Amino acid sequence: MSRPALEATAHKASEALNAALSKFKREQDKPPVILVVHASVGSGHKSAAFAIQEALQNLKASGDGRIPQDCEIRLVDILDFGFIKFNGDRTASAFTGPTRVFYDYSWRYGFTGVVLWGGGTIWSRLMFKPFTDYLSKVDPIAAVATHIVAANCVSCARTLNNQKYPVVCVPTDYEVEGLWPHTDADLFCVANETMAETLRNRKVEEERIAITGIPVRGGYERSFDPLESRAHFGLPTSMRVVLIMSGAHLKQPYVRFRQTIDEFFPYIKRFKDTLHFVFLPGKDQEYRNHLEQLVQIHQVSNATILDYVTEMPRLMSACDFAICKAGGLTVTECLCARLPMVLLGRTYGQERVNSRMLTSLGISLHVTTARELYGAVKHLSDHPEALAAMRVNGDALRRPNAAADIAQCTLDLVGNDYQPKRHFMKLYLGHRPAHRR
Description:
By secondary structure, the protein is an alpha/beta fold. The protein is built from 17 helices and 14 strands. The strands form three sheets. The protein has a six-stranded parallel sheet, with helices on both faces.
């Protein structure tokens, strides 16, 4: 080879080396990242992710040595990275109409017994490849997932990219669906011992299970004076207060709930001397107007309709019990506030599991019609000792510091190497289900 050719080859090699060193330096200069990944299917998964992000930021601010001071706590929606873009809220609403029975069957039985999904890389090779590429660039020091799709994607991407960050799974209901990546997650943070027993029979070892509770945002660990809280919201102090949680980010799942509340309105006047009802329409101005019309039509004097409330822990402390749906985050907030519940409406999928869990422990009552609702409300009005018992029973599941505990568990795993094993898709056999549903 001639001298000019050798010099050209050496120059190219030098440029390639310099480029590689520059890239390495840029990667080394990148601040560390902890990802909290959710899916915008309803509001509960995102709310739980917010709570975990907030808890991690609090630990960082406190100077916890396990989290670098330049670390970024990044909240990510997995649906933003799909090749096919779809609306997660509309998808969630699709399971509340005529298809709800099929959803209930698939959630309770499909892949939740002996045959389980292995968290295969099919997710990350096809639908969510942009997310796999994103993780390759970010290279987080840990990833926390509050939704099944998010959990599978972070575990699959770790395998494909040959990365070693820990994966923490946080189910946001009171049972563990069978599509979580049981064999690939480093830790499951669950609400109670019942869920832990479900995981054990799915070959999740004891050291990969932590009973932390379901994460909610801050404020529920505080104590509020009920009388001061009532004064703050302009509520009467001479009667018991009933909170009706009818506001919703998604209207469709609340259609039947609101219909039953409409049918319950004629009964409200029967409690005019004993109970005061507080309605939460949220940001839904149309529904607020509808409630105001019902108040006038039925000439109800013992009711208050509040605007959108940002101080839910304070409001719950002013109330004696709540009428609500059996959503995971809704009932968890009530538990953390020590607020007894009347769960209204037929339940399917995860809400059925939540309802059965709470009613079996004597924490809530469950009704489906306006007439049943009247009977339950009258019972609690006539027997305040029942409310006291429900509060005591609820303490068995009350974990207002769940987000902080999950953050602590996540940081304990940072730095532990994980050796991924590639597979396109894997099904595996678990043991006999611990709980027949």
